[in-house]
Amino acid sequence: MRAFAVSRCLVVTFGLALLLVGGVGRGFDKESAEGDDLLAGGDLTRHWNTKGNWILDKNGVATLQPRPGETGWQRYDAYLWSKKQYKDFEANFEYKVAKGGNSGFYFHVSDLKNPVQKGIEVQIYDSGSKKEGEKLTDHDSGGIIPGIPPTKNASKPTGQWNKMKVLVRGNKVTVWLNGEVVNEVALDNPKIKGRPESGYIGFQDHGLPLWLRRVDIHAR
């Protein structure tokens, strides 16, 4: 009986340990996944800051429709900026552009008044309209600005949804577009060396229509 009691005690103790570990794990996952679809819930201000004309509909699609007179890309407060800052992270989102569309996914932005110099941009562009075999630049979708073009054109035609994934881990950023790796660069690459190691995430208002949905960002 004594041996049975000891054995039973060990089982109970082990079970409690598993529950505790599981609870900690779930708590971490909950915190990491807090931003699961950061466009859900109908309230854009819950996770984002902007003075631009971003409209979030009941289906979780954020539409950027520039107001009359809004042109260019230097109206930084009109960008869609995360309220949180990130270092290592995984971002997944879907975007759609109109003909000639142009935007960008920014990360590690330390100064929201100067994101071009104080951050890194992954380009979003209407690259689906380019001719097959046409030369790619850093301004094509999946390019890293400044100066690092994507390795291939994986963009879908104008008006179709594209899926982009950006993974920043340690000293490397990897970009997927529609399931294909299109860029993989060290953060100390001479063209982006010296940029901040952490900061805000954002989407550019280039004065052109843009649609976003299913945006989720996980800190790693």
Describe, in plain words, how this protein is organized in 3D.
- It is built from one helix and 13 strands.
- With 220 residues, the protein is an alpha+beta fold.
- The chain folds into two domains: 35 residues; 183 residues, Jelly Rolls (Sandwich), CATH 2.60.120.
- Strands 2-3-13-5-9-10-11 form a seven-stranded antiparallel sheet, with no helix packed on it. Strands 1-4-12-6-7-8 form a six-stranded antiparallel sheet, with no helix packed on it.
- Strand 9 and strand 10 form a beta hairpin.
- The longest helix is centred in the first third of the chain and has 31 residues.
- The protein is globular, with a radius of gyration of 21 Å.
- The N and C termini lie far apart (49 Å).
- The N terminus is likely disordered.
The number of helical segments is 1
Q: What structural class do helix, strand and pairing data support? A: alpha+beta
CATH architecture of the largest domain: Sandwich
Helical content (DSSP H or I, runs of 4+):
10-25%
Structural domain count = 2
Oligomer: single chain
General form: globular
Return Rg in Å. 21 Å
Distance between the termini: 49 Å
Output the helix-strand order.
HEEEEEEEEEEEEE
What topology emerges from the helices and strands here?
Layout: H1 2-32, E1 48-49, E2 54-56, E3 61-64, E4 80-86, E5 89-97, E6 102-109, E7 120-125, E8 144-145, E9 162-169, E10 172-177, E11 180-186, E12 199-203, E13 210-219
Antiparallel strand pairs: 1-4, 2-3, 3-13, 4-12, 5-9, 5-13, 6-7, 6-12, 7-8, 9-10, 10-11
